[in-house]
Specification:
- This protein is mainly beta and 165 residues long.
- It has one domain: Beta Barrel (Lipocalin).
- Helices cover 8% and strands 39% of the residues.
- It is built from three helices and twelve strands; from the N terminus they run αβαββββαβββββββ.
- Strands 1, 2, 3, 4, 5, 6, 7, 8, 11 and 12 form a ten-stranded antiparallel sheet that branches.
- A hairpin with an 8-residue loop joins strand 2 and strand 3.
- It is globular and about 45 Å long.
- The relative contact order is 0.15.
- The mean pLDDT is 88.
Length: 165
């Protein structure tokens, strides 16, 4: 699964088709560029992906940076991805870590905010693809510096050809 993550995924085609498909403007997706790169961050374990996500037209404004730690769960025949968020200004320090993973030195699970266990992505293999889900009922996150709880829910299909959310 790790090899499938590596790459940049841009939803420009989806964004450009929204008008033609007569999707109500209030429901339009924003343009996003998502970069996933397997990195050497041994403090997290052997299967680590750095994630940098951009928003805008063109997508130049960073809106999310994460560390994804992948591990097998033989009991459920799934792969579990634990998600870690950078604290405060730490995100600025690691900007571009997909090009230079040495920026991640000094970071560990203890120095980051792990999204609660309910926020882990649960993956199952489906042919040559993987389907991942988060449990919307149990995934809550309170970002550093914000007192409001945010509920997260996601469904992702990762295939050799695409990343679909």
């Amino acid at each position: 699964m790790g090899a499938l993550w590596d790459g940049a995924y841009d939803n420009a085609n989806q964004v450009n088709e929204q008008g033609r498909l007569k999707i109500p403007e209030a429901a339009w997706e924003s343009r996003r560029l998502k970069i996933f790169k397997k990195v050497d961050a041994t403090a997290f374990g052997p299967n680590v992906t750095y994630v940098e996500q951009y928003l805008g037209e063109p997508p130049t404004s960073v809106y999310r940076q994460r560390i994804y730690v992948h591990r097998a769960d033989p009991a459920s025949s799934r792969i579990i991805t634990d998600i870690y968020a950078f604290r405060g200004k730490d995100a600025e320090k690691v900007l571009g870590a997909h090009k230079d993973s040495s920026k991640l030195k000094g970071f560990s699970p203890a120095s980051m905010d792990k999204l609660s266990n309910g926020c882990a992505m649960l993956w199952k293999a489906v042919g040559d693809s993987f389907e991942g889900v988060q449990n919307a009922e149990s995934c809550h996150y309170i970002p550093s510096g914000i007192s409001e709880k945010i509920r997260l829910s996601d469904r992702i299909v990762l295939s050799p050809a695409a990343l679909s959310t």
